[in-house]
Amino acid sequence: MNCKIATIPGDGIGPDIVREGCRVLDAVGLKFGHSFSYTPVLAGGAALDATGEPLPQATLDACLASDAVLLGAVGGPKWDTLPGSKRPEKALLGLRAGMKVYANLRPALMFRQLADACPLKSEVVGDGLDILIVRELTGGIYFGDRGRNADNTAAWDTEAYSIPEIERVVKIGFESAMKRKNKLCVVDKANILETSRLWREVTEAMKASYPTVELSYMYVDNAAMQLVRNPRQFDVIVTSNMFGDILSDEASQITGSIGMLASASLGDSGPGLYEPIHGSAPDIAGKDLANPLATILTCAMMLRYSFSMEKESAAIEAAVEKVLDAGWRTGDIAGGAEARSRLGDKLVGTKKMGDLVVEALKAL
Ligand SMILES: NC(=O)c1ccc[n+]([C@@H]2O[C@H](COP(=O)([O-])OP(=O)(O)OC[C@H]3O[C@@H](n4cnc5c(N)ncnc54)[C@H](O)[C@@H]3O)[C@@H](O)[C@H]2O)c1
Ligand SMILES: CC(C)[C@H](C(=O)O)[C@@H](O)C(=O)O
Ligand SMILES: [Mg+2]
Fold first, then answer.
1. Which of 94, 181, 221, 362 could staple 55 via S-S, CB 3.0–4.6 A?
2. Residues 245, 274, 322, 332: which is the catalytic one?
3. Which residue positions does UniProt flag as site: Important for catalysis (predicted)?
4. Residue 210 contacts by C-beta under 8 Å, 6 or more apart in sequence?
């Protein structure tokens, strides 16, 4: 199969992790007889510097013309004082809306090899953690009316959801639960927000079509607490754009590091957008310290969801497991000071971690 992938290296650690992702895809291509071609395009701070726009039309056009899009991360202190419409992060919203990828699947999976990197007690996480957060991605407060009053003494951002917007993402939540442990939790703030009450009404109207799924509702403040107290009670969480953003960063830390969490953003048709859930990590950019595994696992999601390449996707995941089994770690998953000091030359950087996954893949 020939697959055309638009790549958006972006800013900070973005170029380094996307490079490792593409190297792993190339190794999969060699092993299984596929060819992946890459069209690098500009978005975020890199695009601002080159063109004055965070998301040039040519970038969106190239993404829509591709079979899938791989994005590193955008943003950084250099562009933090720009007005909202010119910030690098605006590119993300433009891409997500322009590609109509309304469902963001964010698996929070704890690799058993990383139990030491989890900050929770072992009796809380047991033999692992496997939660799927389905985050609504093209609506809610990220896209609602916003502004300031004339004398700049007040500002507003509006949360708005329509029934079709809720239905399509809740449907993904139910369907995802049916492929997993048949549990779906709608996380909201229905004790206060009208949008959340509409989410509940829509979900109630849909639930009869999914009789095998055990459905529950939870307020987001409680969910944030329960994720730390008893994360294994969750299977699939479906939630709004902003709640999903926040809860997925929280869940990532339980699995060991945000440097491990992949994501797939999907719509009804057209290319999917694939990005690790973390950002451009300006504090470690350019130092070969970033963990590329979130991006590499994001590539595995791309193979599974956009190209139906299940065995190829599983091969990437198996290669990552082999590397972790052999004890290799980047700094973010090295554990505490004592564990880190025991690692010796198994404490590696971005590029070496990519090399190790490629080697493990070849050897499978
Ligand atoms: N999808 C995206 O492009 C995206 C996502 C989140 C944040 N951002 C942007 O990134 C910039 C930095 O944001 P932030 O600091 O809040 O979040 P961040 O995710 O970039 O970093 C948070 C912390 O996690 C660490 N970290 C993140 N990814 C890592 C990796 N792969 N390996 C090791 N450590 C990693 C960082 O070093 C930092 O200490 C901001 O401009 C923000 O808007 C972009
Ligand atoms: C950078 C920001 C706009 C983005 C979001 O909030 O969606 C990020 O935090 C993410 O999780 O992809
Ligand atoms: Mg986020």
1. 94
2. 245
3. 142, 189
4. 174, 177, 178, 184
The pair phi, psi for residue 118, each rounded to 5°, is -80, 130
36: helix, coil or strand?
Answer: strand
Q: Is 89 annotated as a binding residue?
A: yes
Residues in the 5 Å CB sphere of ion ligand 3 = 245
Residues forming a β-bridge with 103:
136, 266
261 is in an annotated binding site: no
Candidates 114, 127, 105; CA nearest to 300 is 105
Please state, in angstroms and rounded to a whole number, the distance separating the CA atoms of residues 340 and 332. 10
Which residue is closest in CA terms to ligand 2's atom 7?
245
Protein residue whose Cα sits closest to atom 10 of ligand 1:
279
Q: By three-state DSSP, how is residue 235 classified? A: coil
**Token couple for 231:** 């994360």
Residue owning the nearest CA to atom 10 of ligand 2: 277
* CATH fold group of domain 1-109+261-364: Isopropylmalate Dehydrogenase (3.40.718)
Q: Which CATH architecture has domain 119-255?
A: 3-Layer(aba) Sandwich (3.40)
200's CB contacts (< 8 A; 6+ apart) are 186, 188, 190, 217
Determine whether 26 is an active site residue: no
Q: What is the DSSP string of 292-345?
A: -HHHHHHHHHHHHHHH--HHHHHHHHHHHHHHHHTT-B-GGGS-SHHHHHHHGG
Report the alpha-carbon distance of residue 85 to residue 66 in Å, rounded: 26
pTM for the whole structure? 0.97
Q: What torsion do the CA atoms of 314, 315, 319, 325 make, to the nearest 10 degrees?
A: 50
CATH 3.40.718.10 intervals, the chain: 1-109+261-364, 119-255
Q: What's the distance, CA 275 to chain centroid? A: 5
pLDDT in tens, 233-268: 999 999 999 999 999 999 999 998 999 999 999 999
